[in-house]
Specification:
By secondary structure, this protein is of the alpha+beta class. The chain folds into two domains: 73 residues, no CATH class; 201 residues, Aromatic compound dioxygenase (Protocatechuate 3,4-Dioxygenase, subunit A, Sandwich). The protein has six helices and eleven strands. The strands form three sheets. Strands 3, 4, 7, 10 and 11 form a five-stranded mixed beta sheet that branches. A four-stranded antiparallel beta sheet has the order 6-5-8-9. A hairpin with a 2-residue loop joins strand 1 and strand 2. Helix 1 packs antiparallel against helix 2. The longest helix has 43 residues. The chain is globular, with a radius of gyration of 32 Å. The relative contact order is 0.13.
Length: 314
């Protein structure tokens, strides 16, 4: 972390509310005293010149002036303190509740019309049937069901520029590898399973039923996703407003890979990689990694449920 020299003025003024309050209170006291003196002088002058003024009325007016001065000073100090506290709280809530996820590579296997597979453009987004919540089976020329630990994941799309409001009507395309580390339409070329699109509801949510992905050589276990402003925009595959990835929690990886049939190759692959050395997640901050890692509950035998918030600055 870089360290810079202090600005000369900062040596005389800490710029903190705790340091400013005593000075503010002293100034307000002087202000109240001045207002009291002016009010009393005016009232005394009035009583001396008019001859018919009521002394009790003068006392009441003087008390009212003192009260007004005190109230004015107290309100000003209170407003200043409240404003500072409110700004700090709002900023903290906005930045931590739904942080914007960083953009990441779509990788070599997106099947979204942006690259080729087996010499031809691979674009599953234009296929009839791609809009679905259960993405475990192939649906074009095969009906093979991808085997593995069941996982239902709910993604909530939120606007980081609007107090984390849910973004309705957006399309999210989710895809990932199977339990052997292969991607449909590429290394599992006869299949198109583990790919699907859902449109966010009024709360900005979509849910997918899938399987827990493998850990293949060189990468931390992950899922890919793309966000589009609408379903019609998603069918081109080239207009995503965010392309990123989700990191699978290490404790769930360690619960599944050594204990479930079909994931055995993932044990050694996971041991050889970490989030810090991963070529996608490695340059992200701890806060970004936390936001990109779904929270999960369940078991290898019963399956897992997962949730993640996708923050998007709209």
């Amino acid at each position: 972390m870089k360290t810079f020299g202090a600005h000369p003025e900062s040596q005389h003024h800490g710029h903190r509310l705790a340091e400013d309050l005593p000075r503010m209170e002293a100034q307000l006291l002087e202000r109240r005293r001045a207002l009291l003196w002016l009010s009393s002088s005016a009232l005394l002058a009035s009583c001396g010149g008019g001859g018919g003024s009521d002394s009790s009325g003068a006392s009441a007016l003087t008390a009212a002036a003192v009260s007004a001065a005190a109230t004015s000073g107290t309100t000003a100090a209170s407003t200043s303190t409240t404003s500072s506290t409110s700004t700090s709280t709002t900023t903290s809530t906005s930045s931590s509740a739904c942080p914007a996820l960083p953009a990441e590579t779509s990788g070599p296997y997106p099947a979204d019309g942006t690259n080729t597979a087996s010499g031809s453009t691979s674009d599953v987004l234009t296929a009839s049937g791609i809009v679905r919540s259960d993405i475990r089976s192939s649906f074009i020329s095969s009906s093979t069901v991808a085997q593995g630990v069941a996982l239902t994941i709910t993604l909530t799309l939120q606007n980081t520029n609007a107090s984390c409001a849910g973004l309705a009507g957006y399309a999210i395309y989710l895809w990932h590898c199977d339990r052997s580390g292969n991607y449909s339409l590429y290394t599992a070329s006869a299949e198109n399973y583990l790919r699907g699109v859902q449109v966010t509801d009024s709360a900005g949510q979509v849910s997918f039923t899938t399987i827990f992905p493998a850990c293949y050589s060189g990468r931390w276990p992950h899922m890919h996703f793309e966000v589009f402003t609408s379903l019609s925009a998603a069918t081109t595959g080239k207009n995503s407003v965010l392309t990123s990835q989700l990191a699978m929690p290490s404790d769930v990886c360690n619960a599944i890979y050594p204990n479930v049939t079909g994931y055995s190759a993932s044990v050694a692959n996971l041991a050889a990689v970490s989030l810090a050395t991963d070529n996608v997640f490695g340059d992200n901050t701890a806060a970004q990694i936390a936001a990109m890692t779904p929270t999960m509950s369940g078991s290898a035998s019963a399956g897992y449920t997962a949730r993640a918030v996708i923050g998007l600055a709209v």
